Batch of 2 targets.
Target 1
Amino acid sequence: MPSLDDVTVLVPTYNEAETIGQVIDDFRGAGFDDILVVDGGSDDETDQIADARGARVVYQSGTGKGQAVREGVTEHVEREYVLMLDGDATYRVEDADAMLEPLLEDQAEHVIGNRFADLHEGAMTRFNRIGNRIINRGFAYVHGERFADILSGYRAFSRESFLRMTLSSDGFGIETEMSVECAKRGIRTTVVPISYLPRPSGSDTNLRPVRDGGIIFLELYRRAKTNNPLFYFGSLGVFSTLTGLLIAVYVGVEWVFAGISHEVLAVVSGFGIIVGVQLLMFGVLADLILTLHRDTLQKIDETTESDS
Ligand SMILES: Nc1nc2c(ncn2[C@@H]2O[C@H](COP(=O)(O)OP(=O)(O)OP(=O)(O)O)[C@@H](O)[C@H]2O)c(=O)[nH]1
Ligand SMILES: [Mg+2]
């Protein structure tokens, strides 16, 4: 029977001196004996405090939360399971059991804590709430999975399933990437309700909502290419076709009712429609290829499973 001895608590930190001591005390108090703090070169006392409270402190070789998580898991975790959370005391140790249960009972390989189940007042700005909602909707639409809170920083996963993911994000795109990889690679994923608390006053955010939100959107869209090519190429195709048609209508109306002819616009319009229709067709083809590819992969899986 797996236990807490199989779990490493992973906390990426950058300037969290205000809160990191509390976080480590809480988790040690709950029986976690391997707490790994991956520090991004904080210029406050984060690393000293973490070390003094009995955490294992390592320094990331690059920058950003994403790089810290990737390096932490691949190079500094030996145990089978990882419980990942932020160092800003916004997640509660009381939720740790619920996060780990599906893993330890082998019902899931990746667990996402849903912050919206119990979002405390002041924990998230209205702007971030709206951004999160749009991103979660978009994700469900493109990837066909409802994970409720794909950007959540409270996650539990098996190290093995993490290593199966293709991750490249350095910054706050890492949660998006993990969610996409869960959907794409069929990693068994469960969502559990958790509480999300406000940062204590005096502790500063590392998130730049507009810039990081933009990166997350781009990441989602880019990843749609291999998981939902019909959406990726189709949306561009529809946009291009519609623009072309709109210009065509304008050119037509001007020509019929005012007797003015717009040759250049007519060419642009024709070009937009042709490119758009081609993109659409390409999307359909890519979708077909992907479906066949998935069938093949499944057959391979079945064959190897029955062999072993
Ligand atoms: N190692 C490392 N950790 C980082 C870096 N940037 C952020 N973090 C940590 O990643 C966690 C999440 O960052 P936050 O700033 O809390 O981001 P957030 O939770 O989306 O935003 P808030 O709503 O302000 O809390 C925190 O523990 C940060 O200290 C970094 O460059 N390197
Ligand atoms: Mg935070």
Note: Residues 50 and 263 are 69 Å apart (CA to CA).
Target 2
Amino acid sequence: MQGSKTYRWFKVAESAAELFMSGRSIVQVQAAGRELCIARHDQTLYGCASRCPHASGRMADGWVDALGQIVCPLHRYKFKLSNGVNSTGEGYFLKTYPVKETDDGVFVGLEAT
Ligand code: FES
């Protein structure tokens, strides 16, 4: 579905290596004044909301499991990084954002209005 939308791209880091220098698999960034998270799983970068849709847990304090799901640190609900679906079935949806890395840096796409 993301392919049919138009995005404005915002640079969040010079490289993925810089972004994940701390060794964590999720980092919080800012793009156009918004707080977002960038997560990494199997060398792929994903963007998602910084707060959990359940009760606003800080997703950057969570972790990514072996299946590529981001796990909220508060109540451990899981969301697929690829599409934000709440894979543990509580009925929530985590907003996701496209991310790309080029020679110029790491960029997150926000829907153009
Ligand atoms: S706040 Fe994230 S699972 Fe409850």
Note: The chain has one domain: 2-111.
